[in-house]
Amino acid sequence: MSKAIRIHETGGPEVMQYVDVEVGEPGPGEARVRHHAVGLNYIDVYFRTGLYPQPLPAGLGMEGAGVVEAVGEGVSHVKVGDRVAYAGRPPGAYAQVRVMPAAFLVVLPDALSFEQGAAMMLQGMTAQYLLRRTYPVKAGDTILIHAAAGGVGLIACQWAKALGATVIGTVGSDAKAELAKANGCDHPIVYTRENFVERVKEITRGEGVPVVYDSIGKDTYIGSLDCLRPLGMMVSFGSASGPLDPINVPDLVSRGSLFFTRPTLFSYIAKRADLERTAQDLFDVVVDGKVKIEINQRYALADAAQAHRDLEGRKTTGSTILLP
């Protein structure tokens, strides 16, 4: 028997149960992975609360790193004994051992630890597609990143800085402002006491920014639009403060023909070639030292409920991992 987190109903952190599970053998296209570390992400909260529906009972967790114990028929890109990492559906990473679709697995370079792998796959590949594909950031751009001291935020700030951008970021406290600044954010804005729209306009001398990366959602949506220059792109990739209301198209028209997109990582890595390219780009910038993965919280897998409470209470910074 192995241990895992399961939910039988949606709700608060208390619905998560640490239970014994039977793992079994991998079927065609599957692999069995023994986790050394598991990533914690806000998408896990969405599944736990039911914002993202799934059949119950169910597991949680989209990201992990470990060693392949067995592979099923038709799996050739990984083999028994490989060090691997992944970010992908279905949820179920909150486990000591799991059987999962092998298509999401990539071999983890020897230069990277299991903890780094578990902490960076979902957040790091999210930063990759945001900065390299959704709106390709180039040298000389001035961009706005909300939640700049969060997991995606710290990676995106460093990566955007390495690309030659000037980075503006919103944070919730002075301590988070210092952390964001240490990770490439040129202009941290403490939104609890500063009007981020006014500050962005001040920093850009009234011009606005070409792109806003917004994982907050409802609370920042209109303000984010107001930070954009004409023909700018609003990239809404999360809903930490709640889902957006239906989009009012005139809001985009009146601000200068703005673009709006709601991307997800899983659309960008749906093809195996795209997954490999995205992961390799991430591995390269981390191994080269351009991006450092800040693992600022570690919890035992059995304490996943407390990890969720801290995440939702905005008590975490950078990446968080669960240790089986």
TrEMBL record:
Query: Which is a Pfam family this sequence falls into?
Result: ADH_N
Q: Which InterPro entries match?
A: ADH-like_C (IPR013149), ADH-like_N (IPR013154), ER (IPR020843), GroES-like_sf (IPR011032), NAD(P)-bd_dom_sf (IPR036291), QOR-like (IPR047618), Quin_OxRdtase/zeta-crystal_CS (IPR002364)
Alphabetized UniProt keyword annotations = NADP, Oxidoreductase
Give the protein name, as stated in the record.
Answer: Quinone oxidoreductase
Q: SUPFAM superfamilies of this UniProt entry?
A: GroES-like, NAD(P)-binding Rossmann-fold domains
Q: Which PANTHER family match?
A: QUINONE OXIDOREDUCTASE PIG3-RELATED (PTHR48106), QUINONE OXIDOREDUCTASE-RELATED (PTHR48106:SF13)
User: Ion transport among the record's keywords?
Assistant: no
Query: May I ask which residue range the UniProt record assigns to the signal sequence?
Result: none
Q: Which GO terms describe its molecular function?
A: mRNA 3'-UTR AU-rich region binding; NADPH binding; quinone reductase (NADPH) activity; zinc ion binding
Q: CDD domains, alphabetically? A: QOR2
A single GO CC term for this protein reads: cytosol
Q: Which residues cross the membrane?
A: none
Domain annotation Enoyl reductase (ER): ranges? 11-322
